[in-house]
Amino acid sequence: MDTATIWEWVGYLASVVVAISLMMANIKKLRWWNLVGAVLFVAYGLAIDAIPVALVNFFIVLIDAYYLVKLYRDPIVEPPSK
């Protein structure tokens, strides 16, 4: 398998991971899955010299990381059940 084919598969994997992230009801899981997908897209974008793809996904990585830190620092307190 040549390098171009490997990077193509990384792009497919990134797409699947981002799609899975959008199916998550739990916001922490959504952020984690989306973060992994965005990191894969950054690598993919850099590998194929698609700088806009890499840049927008790097921005998404920063956003996901920010909100994950915020979620773990200030956990949401659920109201007691009635």
What does this protein look like?
There is one protein chain. With 82 residues, the protein is mainly alpha-helical. It has 3 helices and no strands. The protein has helices spanning 3-21, 27-47, 51-73. α2 packs antiparallel against α3.
Counting helices, strands and paired strands, the structural category is mainly alpha
Distance between the termini: 58 Å
Number of domains: 1
Radius of gyration: 16 Å
Mean pLDDT: 94
Cα shape: elongated
Q: Helix and strand succession?
A: HHH
Question: Helicity range of the residues?
Answer: over 70%
Low-confidence stretches: none
Strand fraction equals under 5%
Q: What is the number of beta strands? A: 0
* Largest sheet composition: none
Discrete helix count: 3
InterPro entries: Uncharacterised_HI1736/YgjV
Protein name: YgjV family protein
Keywords: Membrane, Transmembrane, Transmembrane helix
Pfam families: Imp-YgjV
